Amino acid sequence: MKSVFVTVGTTSFDELIAAVSSPPAVRALRSRGCEQLVLQIGRGALEPAPRRAPAFALDVFRFKESLAEDLRRADLVISHAGAGSCLETLEEGKPLLVVINEKLMDNHQLELAKQLHRDGHVLYCNCSTLVETLQSMDLSTLKPFPPGQPEKFALFLDKVVGFE
Amino acid sequence: MPVFVLFDGVFVTSGDFTPARTEMESYIIFHVLTAVYFVFTGGHTTEILRLLSCLSESYSPRHYIFADSDKMSEAKIRSFEQKRAEKFSNSQFTLDRIPRSREVRQSWTSSVVTTLYSILYSFPLTYKLKPDLILCNGPGTCVPVCISALLLGLLGIKRAVIVYVESICRVETLSLSGKILYYFSDYFIVQWPALKEKYPKSVYLGRIV
């Protein structure tokens, strides 16, 4: 698990950034082989300082046009529950740990993360259980996420408008 | 039929029926669809573009209509259309903006006012395009356009088929637009079984984005 990518999408999620860059979390990640931790902090106020050590690097940025490269490079993605972040990660075939922002408990965005967890596609925790999850998680239990099928929609629409 | 692509919804307008003779001496009726596709900022834009990705070139030209406060969708749509033009030589599209009818978490009373304003704005546009089919996938701007289309139908000017696709983010509850358009759409598509159970008149095709 050499490269770990943390993303909060377009939101701000200081609690996650704080939790994942805390010494216990970094220790847990490094004990699992992490040598590079990249934090995409979005609109967050908390901006950890980048670090360069012989066996460990911490990089921080706010936004990019596309996170595809960072997702591809990652061996583990730790993400907020945003649908876009979750789906993009799963479509890259990367193991995903979703961290719930308890300040947003009424947010309907949680519906998708919860369902993905129920279906075995993602791991799920909150900021206070992040460290123990990082220590004990078994990524091999995650099921691959099959792509959506827009061709089924095209077939349906063709029937509806009378193209057959 | 010209395709009318609305950000935050899809319009499909009718076109000409042109019988054509084939080599096999049979007749083909040609439908060129005008569709309006609504897309949204962020993930919803991605969703609508995926929905469009497998549609045949009969759904062309496409007229996209933006919420005027939407900054990100235009670039995504242009990029989508550019790739499409590389595949289909006759690919055509246009872009239009209408006032956004409601911001996220906007209050009820002000939402009614802004929605009415959006209807006033979208009705002439809808009247001009006279869609046959409206395809929407989410919040805000699609409601005034659908209402405009329903009015056109009531006035006997043009009857549109309204197809609504609820976002993949909606697993157990519908968006506000979804709750409204569940009753006014002809086909209401959901992407998770729990919604199909709760809303029995909906169509479930599995995950389509």
Characterise this structure.
The complex is a heterodimer of chains A (164) and B (209). Chain A has 164 residues and is α/β, with parallel strands linked by helices. Chain A has a single domain, classed as 3-Layer(aba) Sandwich (Rossmann fold), CATH 3.40.50.2000. Chain A has 7 helices and 7 strands, in the order βααβββαβαβαβαα. Chain A has a 7-stranded mixed beta sheet, sandwiched between helices. In chain A, strand 5 (76-79), helix 4 and strand 6 (96-100) form a beta-alpha-beta unit. In chain A, helix 2 packs parallel to helix 6. The longest helix of chain A is centred in the last third of the chain and has 12 residues, at 150-161. The termini of chain A are far apart. Chain B is an alpha/beta fold and 209 residues long. Chain B is built from 6 helices and 11 strands. In chain B, strands 1, 2, 5, 6, 7, 8, 9, 10 and 11 form a 9-stranded mixed beta sheet that branches. In chain B, helix 6 links the parallel strand 10 and strand 11. In chain B, helix 4 (142-154) packs parallel to helix 5. The model of chain B is unreliable at 1-35 and 37-42 (pLDDT under 50). Chain A binds chain B through residues 10, 82-84, 87, 108-109, 111-112, 114-115, 146, 148-154, 156-158, 160-163, and chain B through 12, 31, 33, 42-43, 46, 50-56, 58, 132-133, 135, 161, 163, 165, 167-173, 175, 186-187, 189, 191-192, 203, 205-209. Chain B: InterPro entries: Oligosacch_biosynth_Alg14. Chain B: It is a single-pass membrane protein. Chain B: One of its GO terms (molecular function) is N-acetylglucosaminyldiphosphodolichol N-acetylglucosaminyltransferase activity. Chain B: Keywords: Endoplasmic reticulum, Membrane, Transmembrane, Transmembrane helix. Chain B: It is found in: Endoplasmic reticulum membrane.
